[in-house]
Design goal:
single chain; 3-stranded antiparallel β-sheet; elongated; binds adenosine-5'-triphosphate; binds magnesium ion; ABC-type transporter activity; transmembrane helix; transport; ATP-binding
Length: 679
């Protein structure tokens, strides 16, 4: 998209925010609200300044609920430190490991600051300096050894706060097969309050699309990620991610490198939007790599990190004065403050003017150290004072009556289920009945039908073999499909659950129900073809019962796969483990070994293939049925050695065992997800 075209879409609103900051401030002060184009920002701006509810006279006033949801939040962080454990190298060598004291590495050390509503705060620093870690910690999404205090309007993080925080991660986590419009619409349906009608939510999405200049690609698929097709551009994808967070009108918006990999015009557009959002009363914090001086001018505050320690924290415009006061003056007049800061954060003083206080033969480490100690001496006390001063304002902000809606889910369980089911079906429609899968199932069913073609009823061993093949093939196939489900969905689940979008149970049920059509249709086709080609009992009742047992088997096997995937959250590990498990089930299924040693015979009782096989043999051959076991000789089928040892007397017990497994494995999968490694 040519830059000039992109600019036009945003122009009415953002030209104001970008080029004429003072006019935006005027708007923020309520002097000019009626003249501005109705937009999300206007809603916010008027909310900030006119606390009285408005009559819905303008189009934007229809979204008055969004105004209500916005509460300015002051973010304060004091002495935030974070360490990670490092695995001892020695422990990994050799089989016998000595217990060694755990090694830790400090990633963040004593970072302090305040981010206020209406401000755009940028975090700068070299790669690996801890920007993402700090941003994640501030958003309340960092698990581990975090110390210090992080407060939102003076309160610690809570589940109601979680829904007021927007977080745009560095890597865009989006469903590739949905279009831009679908992606944003589903987010709106899940995240916007139930008091808005569906039409209002859709209208709101349209507003965001226009606001972010995504009109041209609104019907294009997102693409990228794991999908093999290319979709919208990187910058557009980033804007879709931002749009998803803007939808809920977050009071606090965190963004991790929203401009990385973008051209300077698009980067400028994104930062303009962020600044516009901040001016609307939100607190916006972003990390950024290499901002141009044009971008740098748009920041209100900057926090500069060097090896996890702050070297500057305060107003963006005063950074050069501060550096001068501690002895670092650039050699050129028109240096980009961001470049100068990053050089210093790397301990490089090549462009620093000769200045008496600096020994230019200092090594990089001592330059960094001097900047860290200067911050501690000069800026830290000022920041502490500002935090104290802000405390009284926060009390005033939080003293209002808490809304009862604050702690509630924005949508009902049933609504979440419906939206998630529809979204899942839409996202996976291409894979559900993909030609490859249909070919796979059809070819195996026709091949096995030909191999067992009209098998003679007197060849019991062959027929029993076909039934065992049914149970094993449809034990493996759904299990391996299900293993991938949760490890692949993990980033999306983590992102959406972190922002309190839905109940885990509604997601879980929607996901498993969404997979059912494919899981059940393919085995039905398979059994229908192979059963009749293979010459099994030509009875409709027996066929239907065989099919039902097979579908039961498929559901249990899917449950095992889901549980393995959810527990391990690693496709490779889960695939390896499941092949071992299926091999054990195959061997213990009762077809290959008829007389297992008693100390290991219990294995067959945990094998769902064993129960399925038994049930299928049970319905295929009735109690008194006979077969020709020799010339003119008729024997009872149930006395055939391979069938006799199966003990077919307690078929209801087998059904009960399969039912217990069907429920049990799914409950295990759910619990594993709830307690597991999402974070
Ligand atoms: N869970 C972790 N395991 C191992 N190392 C970690 C972990 N979290 C953070 N680190 C380390 O902490 C340091 C800071 O990481 P972080 O991702 O915050 O850096 P960054 O400033 O965002 O870098 P970049 O600009 O490259 O994104 C890095 O050296 C990183 O390797
Ligand atoms: Mg990072």
């Amino acid at each position: 998209m040519p830059p000039e075209q992109e600019t036009t879409t945003l122009a009415p609103n953002n030209s104001a925010t970008t080029n004429r900051p003072e006019s935006v401030r005027d708007q923020a002060q309520g002097s000019n609200t009626s003249k501005v184009k109705p937009s999300l920002d206007n809603n916010v701006i008027s909310e900030q300044n006119q606390h009285q509810p408005q009559q819905p006279t303008t189009p934007s006033a229809r979204f008055s609920i969004l105004r209500q949801s916005l509460r300015p939040v002051t973010l304060k962080f004091e002495d935030v430190s974070y360490s990670i454990s490092i695995q001892s190298q020695k422990n990994n060598k050799g089989c016998i490991s000595r217990r060694e004291p755990e090694l830790t590495r400090k990633v963040l050390t004593g970072v302090t600051g305040v981010a206020c509503p209406g401000e755009l705060t940028a975090m700068l620093g070299p790669s690996g300096s801890g920007k993402t870690t700090l941003l994640t910690a501030l958003a309340g999404r960092l698990a581990g050894k975090l110390s210090g205090t992080i407060t939102y309007n003076g309160n610690p993080n809570s589940s109601s706060m979680k829904r007021k925080i927007g977080f745009v991660s560095q890597d865009d986590v989006l469903y590739p097969h949905l279009t831009v419009l679908e992606t944003l619409t589903y987010a709106a349906l899940l995240r916007l309050p139930k008091t808005l009608t569906r039409e209002e939510k859709v209208q709101h999405v349209e507003m965001i699309i226009t606001e972010l200049g995504l009109t041209r690609c609104r019907d294009s698929r997102v693409g990228g990620g794991m999908a093999l097709f290319r979709g919208i551009s990187g910058g557009e994808r980033k804007r879709v991610s931002i749009g998803q967070e803007m939808l809920v009108n977050p009071s606090l918006l965190f963004l991790d490198e929203p401009t990385s990999g973008l051209d300077s015009t698009t980067a400028q557009r994104i930062v303009s939007v962020l600044r516009g959002l901040a001016r609307g009363g939100r607190t916006v914090v972003t990390t950024i790599h290499q901002p141009s001086s044009r971008l740098y001018r748009m920041f209100d505050k900057v926090v500069v990190l060097c090896d996890g320690c702050p070297i500057y924290s305060g107003r963006a415009g005063r950074v050069m004065d501060y550096l001068e006061s501690v002895g670092y003056v650039p050699a050129f007049n028109f240096v980009n403050p961001a470049d100068f800061l990053l050089d210093l954060a790397n301990g490089i003083v090549a462009d620093v003017k000769h200045y008496d206080q600096i020994d230019h033969h200092e090594d990089q480490a001592s330059i960094k150290q001097s900047l860290i100690s200067s911050h501690k001496k000069n800026l830290y006390p000022v920041l502490k004072e500002e935090i104290q001063r802000n405390n009284s304002d926060s009390v005033a902000l939080t003293s209002g009556t808490p809304r009862s809606s604050d702690n509630q889910w924005t949508t009902s369980w049933w609504e979440q289920f419906k939206v998630l089911l529809k979204r899942g079906l839409q996202e996976r429609r291409h894979e559900s009945f993909s030609a490859l899968k249909i070919f796979q199932v059809l070819s195996v069913s026709i091949l096995s039908g030909l191999l067992w073609w009209h098998s003679d009823p007197s060849h019991i061993q062959d027929q029993v073999g076909l039934l065992f093949f049914f149970s094993i093939f449809w034990g493996f196939f759904p299990l391996f499909n299900a293993i991938f489900v949760f490890p692949m969905e993990r980033p999306m689940l983590k992102k959406e659950r972190s922002s309190g979008m839905y109940h885990l149970s509604s997601y879980y049920v929607a996901r498993t129900v969404g997979d059912l059509p494919m899981e059940l249709v393919l085995p039905t086709i398979f059994v229908t073809i192979t059963y009749w080609m293979g010459g099994l009992k030509p009875s409709l009742v027996t066929f239907v019962l065989t099919l039902l047992i097979m579908l039961f088997n498929v559901l249990v096997s899917q449950g095992v796969g889901l549980a393995l995937g959810a527990i391990l959250m690693d496709v490779k590990q889960a695939t390896t483990l499941s092949s071992v498990i299926m091999l054990v089930f195959l061997l213990a299924g009762g077809y290959y070994i008829h007389h297992m040693p008693s100390f290991i015979a219990w294995l067959k009782y945990i094998s769902f293939s064993h129960y399925c096989y038994k049930l299928m043999v049970g319905v295929q051959y009735s109690v008194n049925e006979a077969y020709e076991c020799g010339p003119g000789l008729h024997c009872r089928i149930r006395d055939f050695p391979a069938i006799k040892c199966l003990d077919l007397d307690n078929m209801w017990g087998d059904v009960a065992a399969l039912t217990a497994m069907l429920v049990g494995y799914r409950v295990v999968a759910y619990l594993a997800l709830r307690m597991g490694k999402l974070h």
